[in-house]
Amino acid sequence: MQMQSIGRKNFRVPSEKEFPFRRTVFVYGLPPDATEDTVKAMLSTFGSVTKAEMDKGPDTLDRDIMANLMKKNRVFKLLSKTIDAQPMTFCFASSSSEKDVQYTCVSCNKSKYVREGYYRGAEASYLFCLQCAALRADETLKLYETQRPRPNDQESLRERIIGIPPRAVSQCQTALCVFASQRQASKCVYVRSRLSDNGAFATHYHHYTKLKKDIAIELLNSKLPTKTTPQNATNIDNTPIN
Ligand SMILES: [Zn+2]
């Protein structure tokens, strides 16, 4: 394929065999010391991660995709639905002794396993399941986006309602992760596209591929001499992903 290499950027479409389309997620915002093992452990609350591959460093399209995704307003902390709206903590029981322990989500009243992860409020019994946490994150984001703060209050409002990133985007890594099933991958993206775990988010592989193509085309066009060919670019852009 003609877009194998663009400048120093590594443009490579991983094969379906390496990263099965429906079971792969793109994780971004990871701390600089994250490894394949820590990423696998981090995602294990959603299911079994059969493969994790870190990006190849700062000068890659994967990091550009992250920078693009991080431009949006994002939820870095979860507030309880109590009147004082306290920040909640993500908990995840991985020890086998707690494997079959259940809890009741105060939001949906459903009984869930602690191994599926949960968010805990100031009171030990105030627990949210991950699905309700994701919905709550959507609510708080909407709340934040409808506020009209005075210019000087912008940052404090952000800190108070959706939280601020724990580190700069330039300090973050990305990874491609493969789940054992499509259901697990979907659950991971449902929750982690809305609410971060220590600054990290996840998106579906098809979204990642789409952004990758967009950014590659932008780079390609910016490197071409004045005679750019927008038609070609459009054709490449519209190539169906499946
Ligand atoms: Zn719930």
UniProtKB/TrEMBL annotation:
Domain RRM: 25-54
Record's signal peptide: none
GO molecular function, one term: RNA binding
Entries under SUPFAM superfamilies matching the protein: RNA-binding domain, RBD (SSF54928)
InterPro entries: Nucleotide-bd_a/b_plait_sf (IPR012677), RBD_domain_sf (IPR035979), RRM_dom (IPR000504)
Pfam families per UniProt: RRM_1
Entry protein name: RRM domain-containing protein
